[in-house]
Amino acid sequence: MGIDPVVLFFVFGLAAGLLKSELKLPPALYETLSIILLLAIGLHGGVELVEHASATLLLQALLVLGLGVFLPLLAFTLLRGLRFDRINAAAVAAHYGSVSAGTFAVVVAYMVSRDIAFESYMPLFVAILEIPAILVGIVLAKGISRDTHWGELGREIFLGKSIMLLLGGLIIGAVAGKEAIKPLEPLYTSMFKPVLAFFLLEMGLIASGQLGSLKQFGLRLVSFALLMPLIGALIGALLARFMGLSLGGTAMLATLAASASYIAVPAALRLALPQANPSLSLTASLGITFPFNILIGIPLYHGLAERLIAWGSDMNASTRTLLTVICEAALEKKLVADLEHLGAPAGPSPMPAAAVATACAAPAGTPRAISAWRSSAPASWPSSWPSTCNNTTTPTTR
Questions:
Q1: Are 17 and 209 in contact (CB under 8 A)?
Q2: Which of 4, 162, 185, 286 is close enough to 264 for a disulfide, judged by CB 3.0 to 4.6 Å?
Q3: Euclidean distance between CA atoms 290 and 383, whole angstroms
Q4: CA dist 295 to 208, 311, 356, Å?
Q5: What's the pTM value of the predicted model, to 2 decimals?
Q6: Do the Cβ atoms of 130 and 42 come closer than 8 Å?
C-alpha cells in the first residue's frame, strides 16, 4: 500500500517551508481546521462512549491517567541526563507527557484506510492524557509553589481550546446519541480526511520553521526527540496489551504515548513557566517528533502492536501446552495409583509410563490396548486387567 495522501500533504508543506516558498494558509483557516478536527474526534468518541461505558472502561481510563503521569517523569529524567537545565527539562517533559491531537487524527485515518478495527472510545484517552503532564511539569520545575497562580493555570488547562473542544464533543456525542448525531457524521467520516489533509499542509509549513532552531540546540535535543517517542510507544503498547485492547487500539495508544503536545501545553506553560524557552519545546515536539511520527512512527507502532499480539498468542499457546502436560502427568499418576490399588505391585515395578500413555490415548469408554499393558507388565501382575476406562480415566474391572 502506498503512502497515505494526507501524509503527502504534510511532506508538501514541509518541503514548501524549507524551500522558502510563499505558500501560506490564512491563520483563520488553520484555526477553523483544528476546531473541526477536535470537535469531530470528540463527537465520535462521545457517541461510542455511551455504548461502551463500563467498569472496565473506568479502570482503563485510570491506567491511562497513570501513563500521563509517568511519561513526563521519564522524559524529565532523560532530559536531565542530557544536561538540560531544570526549568527547560520540565517544560519539554510536559510536552512529551501530553499528546498531539493532530497525530491522533493521522493515526485514526491510518487505521480507517487499512480497515483496522480499534476501540472507538479512544478520544476519551486523548482528553485524559492532555491534562496530568502539565501539572507534573510545573511541579518538576518549581515544586508546589505559592507563586503559581493555580486558579488562572487551571482555567488555561481545563478551559483551553483543545480540551474544551474534545470534552465538548464528547459530551455532545454522549448526550445526543448515535441516531441524533447522524446528520453530523460526515464530520468524522467523509469530511475527516480532506480537513486533515489541509491541516497537515499547514502543520508542515509550521514544522519547517522550527527546524531552523536545531543548530541552536544541537544533537542532544535531536536525540531526545527521536528516542522519547520510541520509548513512549513501547510503554504505551505494553500498557494497551495489559488492558486487553485490540490491534488497532494497541497501535493507537502506542502512538499517543509517542506523541508530544504543541497546542495545549505551550499555552498553559506560557503562564506557569514564563522563564522556560518555548522554542526549545516546539522545536522538539513540532519540528522533530511530529514529522517522525507522521512519516515513520505510526507504521512502526502498528508493526510493534502486531509483534506484541503475536508474541502474546505464542505465549498463550505455550501456556496451554504446559497446562496440558501438567494435567496429563497428573492423570497418569492417578491411573497408576488406581491400577496398583487393583492389584498391581506398588514398589519397584509400577506400570511403565509408555503403557499408561497407550492406554489413555483412546477415547474414554472404548477398549484399551490391553496387549500393550500386558506386554510390558511383570508376570506377577494379575491377569484380570481392566479393559475399559470410564469418562474420568479411572479404570473399571471386567
A1: yes
A2: 162
A3: 80
A4: 14, 26, 60
A5: 0.71
A6: no
